[in-house]
Design a protein that fits this description.
The chain has 14 helices and nine strands. The protein is α/β, with parallel strands linked by helices. Helix 7 crosses helix 9, helix 10 packs antiparallel against helix 11 and helix 10 packs antiparallel against helix 13.
Length: about 290
């Protein structure tokens, strides 16, 4: 119930379900009933849902899920949603997400994630923290509420939890360009110093690992397709200022080398050349594209 993409919503999927709450709840209830046929022991169930027990103090809601005395639990079902379909409904105070979250809890859903935008907003505009806060208030601690949207820096996650009272934060697109965002966010939530930004060698090692993990789990064809798509996201955090000249150093040659790579060996050659300083260039980079420069 969180996807706003037209090709999904036109088939009554994704966030189109926000326009028919009865149908959405009946669907969730049916899944819950089916999952009851797949019990997990208490230890495994705790691993799957126990992540909502945060150790970071002083941030967000302090509730947690109790496993009770039973030795087993069904596979837990969680749901993701947006605030509502239309901007007009949200600004009129008629967002359906608080009511929907409460109804989902009634039928056995063990947690919800709320993207703080309407379907009409898609990925534009600014996340509405007040909308997430209303969901937290409505469920009253019965189930954990995870906030989502515009978490690109550790401070964004801390602010979301403090202003909404949510139990945790889901990070999506921000992780595509900043894989170490999870590490930094946890440090911020625990009140610890945020580690220094990885250098180019560490970032290159992350890209290599990402590529090799895709090869291992999905095969070479999938890995090649994805690295060509994702290199542009990684590159946003590779752009930097030369410490001597102060000029912006771009990584367009690295992106091009990855995009024309024929096979995995070519990808690693491109990474090797970048690490050796061969695939850097001085370039005029648009501020919006450069991200952290």
């Amino acid at each position: 119930m969180g996807c706003p993409v037209d090709k999904v919503t036109k088939k009554d999927g994704g966030s189109a379900l926000l326009t028919n709450l009865d149908r959405a709840v009946k669907l969730a209830e049916r899944v819950v009933r089916e999952l009851e046929k797949c019990p997990l022991d208490a230890e495994e169930w705790g691993k799957r849902i126990g992540g909502v027990r945060r150790q970071a103090s002083g941030i967000g809601h302090q509730g947690s899920v109790s496993l009770g005395a039973s030795s087993s639990r069904p596979v837990p079902l969680t749901c993701k949603m947006r605030l509502c379909w239309s901007d007009a409904d949200y600004h009129a105070g008629n967002a359906c997400s608080p009511h929907l979250a409460r109804m989902l809890a009634d039928v056995g859903v063990v947690g919800v994630t709320v993207h703080g935008r309407t379907t009409e907003m898609k990925f534009s505009g600014v996340v509405q923290l007040a909308g997430i806060a209303r969901v937290v208030e409505e469920v009253g601690g019965r189930i954990p509420v995870i906030g989502n949207g515009d978490v690109r820096e550790p401070e964004d996650a801390v602010r979301m939890m403090r202003e909404t009272g949510c139990n945790g934060v889901m990070i999506g697109r921000g992780a595509l360009s900043t894989p170490w965002l999870f590490r930094d966010t946890w440090s911020a939530m625990c009140g610890e110093a945020i580690p220094s930004t990885p250098d180019d060698a560490e970032k290159t090692a992350m890209m290599r690992r990402y590529f090799e993990m895709m090869r291992e789990y999905r095969g070479d064809h999938y890995a090649m397709t994805q690295i060509r798509r994702r290199i542009a996201w990684f590159a946003k955090r590779m752009i930097r200022k030369d410490p001597v000249t102060g000029r912006i150093v771009g990584v367009k040659p690295l992106k091009e080398a990855i995009r024309v790579a024929v096979g995995p060996a070519d990808v690693h050659v491109a990474f090797d050349r970048f690490a050796a300083g061969e695939l850097n260039q001085f370039a005029e980079v648009d501020e919006a594209e450069s991200g952290s420069v």
